[in-house]
Amino acid sequence: MKMIRLKDAQRHDKKATELAEAKDWAGAREEFVTAASLYGAQEAVDLQAKMLSAAALCDFALGRLPEALASLRRSADLMASVKDIEGEATAILESGHVLLKLGRADEAEAAYERALRLFRSEDNHDGLVRVYRGLENLFRSKCDDAKAEEMRDRCEAARRLLAAE
Questions:
Q1: What pLDDT is recorded for position 2?
Q2: I need a surface site. Which of 67, 91, 115, 120 has the fewest CB within 10 A?
């Protein structure tokens, strides 16, 4: 029975990806949520978290920001539970983007800072580039050009380190 459910989850995962590639965000979201539920029933927590993050991106595309935020927060919690630091940091980073879009700049900044700490702990330069870009956008939204330029410079430094890898 367990193998059948896992295959069902994989089928929904595949269908969701196809729908997302076709930009059918509502259909893709439904399939990602179904896959997340099936993976969760199989205790495949890492895959469940990835499906929730993917569903959140669909919600974001549909303008359903509170739903996207809830899915990303659940995904981050699940990633933390399986010690997937990069996955946790990515979900937190994405939640920062959603919070910024919702106009909750202080919460977005806290999310970016948390993601920054996690990516630094893994020496993940790609993640650092993405966080610094988010922070640059955040500070531009606050009309703090000096801080935005500082984040742009840090982003460029992290890109150089990434290129050297």
A1: 63
A2: 120
